[in-house]
Amino acid sequence: MGNHEAIVITGVGAVTPVGMTAESTWQALLQGVSGARRIKAFDPSEHACQIGCEVDDIEHLTLHPAPGGRATRLLLPAVEDALHEARLSMEGLIKAERRIGICIGTTMGEISPYEEVMNGRLPGSPGGPGIIAEHMTDYFGFGGSCWTITNACAAGNLAIARAMDELMAGRADVMVAAGVDAMSWVAFTGFSSLRAMTPDLCRPFDADRRGLMLGEGAGAIILERESNARRRGARPLARLMGYGLSSDAHHITQPDPGAEGSIRAMERAIEMAGIDKGAIGYVSAHGTGTQANDRMESVALRSVFKDSIITSSIKGHIGHTLGAASAIEAVVCVKALASGWLPPTINMRRQDPDCRVRVIANEPLAMHTSYIMSNAYAFGGVNSSIIIGRAETEAGNELQQQPREEEAC
Amino acid sequence: MSIIALTGAGVISPSGVGTAFLPRPDGLSSWGSSKLPDLDPADYGWTGLKRMSRVVKYGSLAVGEAFRSGGFETPFEGEASKRTSLVVCSSHSNLEPIVAMYQDARQYGASRVNPGLFPETVMNAFAGHLSIYFRITGTSVTLSDAIPSAPSAFLYAADLLSSNQADMVMCCMLTLHPPSMMAQVTYQEEEGPGAESIVALLFRRVSDAGPTSAVLRWEAADICMHDDSGPVVRPADGFLAAASAYHGVISGKLQEQRWTVSGRAKGYYSFCMAGLKNKGEQVHA
Fold this sequence. Notes:
The complex is a heterodimer. By secondary structure, chain A is an alpha/beta fold. Chain A has one domain (7-407): Peroxisomal Thiolase, Chain A, domain 1 (3-Layer(aba) Sandwich). In chain A, 31% of the residues lie in helices and 20% in strands. In chain A, the strands form 3 sheets. An 11-stranded mixed beta sheet of chain A has the order 5-4-6-7-1-8-15-14-9-10-12, with helices on both faces. The longest helix of chain A has 16 residues, at 70-85. The radius of gyration of chain A is 19 Å and the shape is globular. In chain B, strand 1 and strand 2 form a beta hairpin. In chain B, helix 1 (54-69) crosses helix 5. Chain B is α/β, with parallel strands linked by helices.
């Protein structure tokens, strides 16, 4: 991978339980809006837990009839949102031929057709993880490389990392890096069977947290080499600095309490970014609200950053959106860098004394930082960290917006 | 052009375990849609897998054989563990557990589903089991393209090696038929499902390659030159073709083997496997 030119983010998009765009999601996060409500995607009456974070009116998210199932319909407007901000029209994409690719991270993929079969119905389109990228490629006319990465709840970060690889290797001019997962009976029943679901609200890092809340959504970022963005007049929103990946080899569902793999992923990301870890002002935590994850992540954060780091998790707002989580969180990191506001962890009452990290509790924090790390972990012992930096202007100065009074919650 | 060294191979095919009975790349289609035979990994020295699913048992066997043929002892320790990565290709190996979960819920109720089932419905659980069994703590990635593609997996491995994120990359392709009730809703190649197989290939940088290595080169091509590019194989058979060519070259039966893999949507990838120092070459990834 010989090309080490800066990789910039020129567009972001999101569809979440609290917002239909990246901007509306960001505003809802700052305002502490929660997407938690009774599940509607299927009948949850047989389950002990019956709440989750769903996106309403999915069928109305796109103007045109969208292909595929629920996951495709969530991702399509998120990608449209990101492409629009990056000033990439669909007509332009088709003309670009082979040089625009897509990399999608997902846990369950397009699972709704499989669930329809299991419920005795004949679905209208195939299921599976890879079909989402096929639908995206057909719909938008992407002619470049196409990847589907199924590293469960870290899949969004791995998709971003792979998209960065493609650009650094010069195999693409623009990459869409995205994550998506739809609410499904399988995931809901599965997490419930593991007793990993909270019966009330998701409270990451809280002493009385009782587990995760399942969510759904999609996040997308547009990545390109800085020279490509400048040439076509796109405004860099942020820079993707680096990533780190590792495995625990510890347990199929539980993280390693010693956090050795998580620490290694963070350190690799810092090394690739070529920055001092002290320059990182905030970590967007995986923060699922389970006992094991939040303790492990706290151990890892303290080991890498000592007492200095500030962190929070948005899973109290939108639930755990699985493969979409780290893609949505990357979108949130871009917004945080640009605005000078950091999103809070909501539903926090009393911080767990075993989670010895500085958590932004319940209210957003006004703080400018140049670099943000975003963590994601997954079944199979997967650890991932990415680092996003503030964009630079043509003159070499970092773009900076002062937090505005009306943005405060 | 991409160049890496293939250092070990483990295969479970309708012919059994190993590369010795694999047909040449142009004969892979002769298997039709055959399924894998019944096997016990313990018969090959891979113990401790009794409670695992069929796919994890067979996958561990294939990966273990690939490490063994490359001369590596497992489980790894220390730096070797951190410098080894996994790239798994699997598109619907999670469907059997999904069906089992529904059946369990119908029998016992949705709130009493066996907690052992859900992790296996997550596609990368397979790679997680491999990482635990062989103690692989480097990058682990699971690729689930609609049509699993050998060129994608090999490219990922080449990138991990050339960027110095890994010294060894184990690539494993799971080609398994979906449960019959799901056959109509899984994305299939036009030619049909093909034969079942699990193929594990161990890659290293050419500069690090040992005596059990052969050099694998490939490049994308817009058109297929049938005369000098060898037989055309399906994307899902790209791993089998590489394993077959590896056996031919390492056993001395062939100096080199060429084949072409059809692309996911358009175009082709031309492959060539040759001995490490064939024609006096010294190449570096």
